[in-house]
């Protein structure tokens, strides 16, 4: 009983923090229908800023900077104000130009903003933890309830602050003029404009309040656990989003309820489940997946929010930006479209070029890089099936990749070599069996997960896939017997064909190229079939497709399975090519990277993922030579984010939008858009 | 309604007596490559009811949305009460005295009738007289008075239209723009709404009306503009307009 009581108390403290951050997600979603992933990073910044303002001096960018050394309440007010201002700035720069853009664009932008903020924080404050200074209330003896439940004074402060902030916000939304204007703008922006509400300013106010709440949650979290770190916002941010969805996104009482439930479930789960603390992150996502299945609108939400994904996720151009910028993008687009219009001949020419490059490049170093380009191009092609062709945002694609890599590594290393002492060279053929096997296994997972979840649309689907990706990662870290946990699996044999080792960089490049030909050919055939036409119809307008008799849930499932197959398939080769894998290889960041490659190269094109991979990976290598990047390696990722934001703001349809596979039948317009089948 | 003070408030003194309240010159609006409104001129004299009629796709609603600042202009100028408002933000136009009752009413369905009305006064910035204005709206539409605490989404179509008009009047406009106020309403309700339009005009309001029902619009209006494919093809005083002529515009015969 005492144990339970203590767990409940801990859960309440955690729940209060989740609830505060969930309010940020729910408020902004309610007003502009945007899941702003960047709140996780504003949470982290709230913690860093508070800690910095409380210290006498901080090391920023490697230099010691004197700080005011405020007490916690003053520092917190300062941090909240700064974070709120940053939130407004982010909205102004990255989201406002996209209010009328395709729905995928702001979502991707918010992920990019997240990446930028996190890398900047790491650049400024360093990769180390910043110890959170002790506030004098924290030194007081804990309060003891029923002789057995210990709550520190700060725990009580956390709960009281959260309660007060949420009641205050509810009253503000319900009674104040600005609150009324917020509700009006949430309901109908045009009507709100017509009664004289400056909607942009109201949205900015929502961002300011939301960011303030995220900062408050972050600083309370850092205070409770005693440190601030540049990656500390990621998991709590996801959980706060989970809490908001759990309670019904858009509803403030829902966010409070969702936060509390999540906090309590997590505390109880880590207390009672065997090895519970390791699994507590998975618990929240299992809860989320289960709830979305049973009640997609959340506990207190309204059902219509799930249908917010009306219309094409990709169509539509930005009206934003200078004319010269748009014309130059259009020129690039036109050139890519012309290149893509060459049909099989152009494809073969490109393949010949790739072979020539592979045969002539002298340096092993560059061959390895080119192999990475082909691998990432293939993976991005797999993601492109679901995002580019079917128009569904998938943030859990890395999970399929992980399934493939782990399958072959476990079989080769942990089972055959370690258990049975079989030398990998004797069973070289297993690799070729594993390729389709891993594809089928990943596709099986996709079907398993997709069957309940693909009824969901738009943002909810994205959140769900995010949850799935995280579950797979948590499993990979914690199921030590199966995966070796965080240590990863070493000694995965290089590919081998009839006893000939294909370990040299050149052989690996050609191996990758051969697989890429297979992958792209298969995807191209699939997209050209009636299945592909159904996908494109769903992408362009799911409701219209449904009305035309396309069984949308089934075709979404096919797309998901096909994309999963590619992920698993390529994953096998990835493991053998790297010869070492660990859960770190399959983080959400990798998923975002793949997404960026697809967007960069052109959603819904065959050659786009490879173009994107080539640009990014070569850029990454060249950037390593810059002295600034050498001093601050994280800035490369910030740059990735900036590129993505700029691309989204000025050209949300992607670089090669005109090369996108359209619904026209080949031959219907002779000489019109043909598709490149091999990259 | 007579014991209640009039809804209409005096027009800004800056207005020159001979200048129209609203004057539009060469207004053009494009949706991408499509030109929806192609250089139209309009003048609305104070205290008049002016209507814009035409078939679907003629550009009427687009014109009204450009007037209240919801759509950017491709070219043209808009003057209101002696001031050039072409570049003014929508909320500032409301503050200057233009109220727009949009097509399909668009009341805030999840908010109470009272909240909808209070929001109507948002641009005014003075919280002082809101209570007395609420009384005036109840006097104008007694049905709304009975439903003050009810959610606007639960009102009937006609009641929602009343609410939309009342919400527009709460900003104390000098020009009331109404887009198809009778759309989808029962015949009795149509009469009631149109009578209200006449009533508020009698109190001195200027009205710019878009109406599908051209016959009713001509009966009501002091001046009628006929639009077709983004242009004004004919205009005359309401009494002078030849119904046969209007019919030919609707049916697409060239004039």
TrEMBL record, chain A:
<feature type="transmembrane region" description="Helical">
    <location>
        <begin position="557"/>
        <end position="576"/>
    </location>
</feature>
<feature type="transmembrane region" description="Helical">
    <location>
        <begin position="107"/>
        <end position="127"/>
    </location>
</feature>
<dbReference type="InterPro" id="IPR001851">
    <property type="entry name" value="ABC_transp_permease"/>
</dbReference>
<feature type="transmembrane region" description="Helical">
    <location>
        <begin position="149"/>
        <end position="174"/>
    </location>
</feature>
<feature type="transmembrane region" description="Helical">
    <location>
        <begin position="509"/>
        <end position="527"/>
    </location>
</feature>
<feature type="transmembrane region" description="Helical">
    <location>
        <begin position="37"/>
        <end position="55"/>
    </location>
</feature>
<feature type="transmembrane region" description="Helical">
    <location>
        <begin position="588"/>
        <end position="619"/>
    </location>
</feature>
<feature type="transmembrane region" description="Helical">
    <location>
        <begin position="631"/>
        <end position="650"/>
    </location>
</feature>
<feature type="transmembrane region" description="Helical">
    <location>
        <begin position="277"/>
        <end position="294"/>
    </location>
</feature>
<feature type="transmembrane region" description="Helical">
    <location>
        <begin position="241"/>
        <end position="265"/>
    </location>
</feature>
<feature type="transmembrane region" description="Helical">
    <location>
        <begin position="398"/>
        <end position="416"/>
    </location>
</feature>
<feature type="transmembrane region" description="Helical">
    <location>
        <begin position="202"/>
        <end position="221"/>
    </location>
</feature>
<dbReference type="GO" id="GO:0015658">
    <property type="term" value="F:branched-chain amino acid transmembrane transporter activity"/>
</dbReference>
<protein>
    <submittedName>
        <fullName>Branched-chain amino acid transport system permease protein</fullName>
    </submittedName>
</protein>
<keyword id="KW-1003">Cell membrane</keyword>
<feature type="transmembrane region" description="Helical">
    <location>
        <begin position="346"/>
        <end position="366"/>
    </location>
</feature>
<keyword id="KW-0812">Transmembrane</keyword>
<feature type="transmembrane region" description="Helical">
    <location>
        <begin position="75"/>
        <end position="95"/>
    </location>
</feature>
<dbReference type="GO" id="GO:0005886">
    <property type="term" value="C:plasma membrane"/>
</dbReference>
<feature type="transmembrane region" description="Helical">
    <location>
        <begin position="428"/>
        <end position="448"/>
    </location>
</feature>
<feature type="transmembrane region" description="Helical">
    <location>
        <begin position="373"/>
        <end position="392"/>
    </location>
</feature>
<dbReference type="InterPro" id="IPR043428">
    <property type="entry name" value="LivM-like"/>
</dbReference>
Automatic annotation (TrEMBL), chain B:
<dbReference type="GO" id="GO:0015807">
    <property type="term" value="P:L-amino acid transport"/>
</dbReference>
<keyword id="KW-0067">ATP-binding</keyword>
<dbReference type="InterPro" id="IPR017871">
    <property type="entry name" value="ABC_transporter-like_CS"/>
</dbReference>
<dbReference type="InterPro" id="IPR003593">
    <property type="entry name" value="AAA+_ATPase"/>
</dbReference>
<keyword id="KW-0547">Nucleotide-binding</keyword>
<dbReference type="GO" id="GO:0015658">
    <property type="term" value="F:branched-chain amino acid transmembrane transporter activity"/>
</dbReference>
<dbReference type="GO" id="GO:0005524">
    <property type="term" value="F:ATP binding"/>
</dbReference>
<dbReference type="GO" id="GO:0016887">
    <property type="term" value="F:ATP hydrolysis activity"/>
</dbReference>
<feature type="domain" description="ABC transporter">
    <location>
        <begin position="22"/>
        <end position="254"/>
    </location>
</feature>
<dbReference type="InterPro" id="IPR027417">
    <property type="entry name" value="P-loop_NTPase"/>
</dbReference>
<comment type="similarity">
    <text>Belongs to the ABC transporter superfamily.</text>
</comment>
<protein>
    <submittedName>
        <fullName>Branched-chain amino acid transport system ATP-binding protein</fullName>
    </submittedName>
</protein>
<dbReference type="InterPro" id="IPR003439">
    <property type="entry name" value="ABC_transporter-like_ATP-bd"/>
</dbReference>
<keyword id="KW-0813">Transport</keyword>
<dbReference type="InterPro" id="IPR052156">
    <property type="entry name" value="BCAA_Transport_ATP-bd_LivF"/>
</dbReference>
<dbReference type="Pfam" id="PF00005">
    <property type="entry name" value="ABC_tran"/>
</dbReference>
<keyword id="KW-0029">Amino-acid transport</keyword>
